[in-house]
Amino acid sequence: METERLILRPWREEDALSLYKYAKNPAVGPIAGWPPHTSVENSREVIRDILSAPETYAVVLKETNEPVGSVGIMFGDSVHSADMQEGDAEIGYWIGVPYWGKGLIPEAVNRLLRRCFEELGVKRVWCGYYDGNTKSRRVMDKCGFKFHHTEEGKPSPLGDVRTEHFTLLTKEDFLKDSCKETKLVYALRPLEEKDILEMQHLFRSTVLNVNLKDYTKEEVADWASCGDDLSHWKELLSQHHFIGAFDEQGNMAGFSSMNKGGYLHSMFVHKDMQGRGVAILLLSEVEKMAKAYGVTEITSEVSLTAKPFFEQKGYKVVKSQKCRANQLELTNFVMCKQIL
């Protein structure tokens, strides 16, 4: 199975070195109830005895072809809550510390959820985490799981007694959320001078509201003032190919741009349209433009706010820098992505 950044495949004994590299870290296993690996041979035994189970997959980065974590679907006797019924499944996961916070496990779990509900006929999927494992809980939240119940006095595989919290996602809720996503349809079209006022308003509103969480009030005010000059927008439109996304009412939901040199100048989404797939759609479109121009690498200067999104889409930080907005210098990142 594949996702945008990952290959999910069965574990192989030759993966033992990579498995040991990440599973030996005491920050990874114990919080999930299993001991750190002690050697490459120990990792090889785990692959043979545990990770060879059906529906257990190595999380392999396409970029490096290296396994960096594991995900799996468990059925029947493998699941461990008294509330689980016949036909239910449970999903488990972990990933190496260097890859925490990059959205890789939610990406992998969402693919397993599709397998459960669309391919295996599962009606309900469970996910559990021990008390204190907030990172694991955040993965569940991102993937749509809802808190179901808590079980106290649970013996862990390490021999201690813990409190475990269980979350649940039904097929009905999964499909409902999927339908919500697919119903958000945006029309794309090139932007022209007649669109400048709407672009200007969207830019200013987004910077002052969305970017405020990463910059000071003085910084966002200075940044927003860069859009006050209409002649500046006309100059940008003459130098870059701008594309806009519009909702069903014809309102601008966001815009982005690309030039013939592969420079992605802009990516702004309306403050009220955040998290609705607008940036994903726009990025896909401007990447197509870059390929049509024949460039092999896209570069961009990305804000603190946008950096996690671009990282999730395969962009790498080249350097951190201070860049002048209007009067003030703000932190941003030069990022790039190979596309051909």
From TrEMBL:
<dbReference type="GO" id="GO:0016747">
    <property type="term" value="F:acyltransferase activity, transferring groups other than amino-acyl groups"/>
</dbReference>
<dbReference type="InterPro" id="IPR051531">
    <property type="entry name" value="N-acetyltransferase"/>
</dbReference>
<dbReference type="Pfam" id="PF13302">
    <property type="entry name" value="Acetyltransf_3"/>
</dbReference>
<dbReference type="InterPro" id="IPR016181">
    <property type="entry name" value="Acyl_CoA_acyltransferase"/>
</dbReference>
<feature type="domain" description="N-acetyltransferase">
    <location>
        <begin position="6"/>
        <end position="168"/>
    </location>
</feature>
<feature type="domain" description="N-acetyltransferase">
    <location>
        <begin position="186"/>
        <end position="340"/>
    </location>
</feature>
<dbReference type="Pfam" id="PF13673">
    <property type="entry name" value="Acetyltransf_10"/>
</dbReference>
<protein>
    <recommendedName>
        <fullName>N-acetyltransferase domain-containing protein</fullName>
    </recommendedName>
</protein>
<dbReference type="InterPro" id="IPR000182">
    <property type="entry name" value="GNAT_dom"/>
</dbReference>
